[in-house]
Design brief:
- This protein is of the alpha+beta class.
- The chain starts with a helix and ends in a 33-residue tail after the last strand.
- The protein is elongated and about 105 Å long.
- Among the domains are: 182 residues, no CATH class; 98 residues, Immunoglobulin-like (Sandwich).
- Helices cover 47% and strands 14% of the residues.
- Strands 1, 2, 5, 6, 8 and 10 form a six-stranded antiparallel beta sheet that branches. Strands 3, 4, 7, 9, 11 and 12 form a six-stranded mixed beta sheet that branches.
- The longest helix is centred in the N-terminal third of the chain and has 30 residues.
Length: 509
Amino acid sequence: MLVSAACAAALAGALWLLLAPERGASPARRGLAAALILLLAWVALGWTRSELRYADALPAEFSPEKILLLTALQLILSTAAFAAAGGRGSAQRGAAYGFATAAVGFCASRWPQLARAIELGGGIFAGPFLAAALPAAFALTAAGLAAALLLADFRPHASLLVLGLAAAWAAPTLGVEAALSRWWGFGPRSLAEAAGIPTNDDAPRLTVVRLSGSERPPFREPVRMAAEGVDLSPESLGRLDDFLRRSGYRGIFASEALKDLRQGWRQWWETDRALDAMMISKPGRVHPDYRGALDLLRAGPLTPERYAKLQRLDAFSRASTAGFEDVDGSQYIFEGFSAAYARFGNEALARQWLYRIDNLWPINERKVEITPVEDFRDGRVTGRVLLDGLPALGVRVGLFYVSTSSGTGVTTRLLSSAAFPEDDGGFSFDELGPGTYELALLGRRLDLGGRILGAPGPVVLGYERPTAVLPPIRLERDVLPVPEAFAPGGLPEAPTPQVPEKPLGFPGR
């Protein structure tokens, strides 16, 4: 707003000098002319102002009503201001100026959307620069149009100059908009519209219960399965994946879609799908989420398939420097590779990644952690989950690897595996490495809002205890309130909720 006001003031000053009011004009007329010129300049800069609405990635487009209103106001004010100023001005020239600036203004009104689209498409410097320069560029053009119509030296070529200035705006506006529409998916206002998925207004609301054993009652956390602007239900995640594949991971919504896809599968504890999403790499377009992928590889089952994915991630990192622009972030990634290789028992590569930290400069003074090389991968956790005495088929069981940093003392819980219980309520997690694990539950608030009995607390696996057989985890839902008595016979029995349909909307379940 301040930039727009400054540009409007500069345009008003230029118009006042170009119109050159007559010396003998009365103070009232000069004051009227000055007021009309100021108002004209402020209205003219209205073509460059933008509004960003909730859930839209791009600024709002001008409605036909707003375009007509601005055009009419500009025509009226231009005619009145030029006529009131006198000097070189006249009503006829004012009308011509109003039409010309409205034509340029319509082109200018497209650039807030185009600049934002360029930024989202990867032009992180070009997009903001164009948006910031728009008011000044329009004010300069508006002053040039006035000079072409008012200065005697330019009058013989006024028509060509006006058409040239208008074409200088129209050609790049139409060209850039056509290119963005053709190759970068410009048109929809938001990712939800582009991918054909709901917004986050109706996203599922679930509950996470952490069974660490230290809280009484267990720690509960409400979770909304949504990103900033879109629903992240499994169906929506499938459509996001399809959208990315159709667009070739390129476009103004590609970065947001990939971020939401990775976040969504992780929120649903879909470890394999989350890992595959974290590892997506398209040279020049997207790079893997190294830290997220390494957390999943380090904490999850130590299978040959997952070790092959770790090697693929290693190959991505050596083929491109994308994702390693930040020194601190790079150090965490290098340590993550080292820790993951150590979990899989590869000491040579674990040390190789630690040695790469020495080449980072400048590096913060932070203790480099060396993870012990491990060859134990036979850990197993089994148990059962019951809901009101029946198998809890609609509750997802998650296993988390508890990692405590020796350098900072910070404890983190990394998602390891997750599964729905079998028909008898049983679950199992296999091929685990040594360490401390905790269980958590993900489900509807109705199912997880009551008492929880048999929370196992931390589970330690290693050579001395390779298998942990947990006692049943029993969920007891709150009983519904008893209705008022309606007969002399007394109160009816309190109704209890039925076992919900299984499970949480996962495909193929």
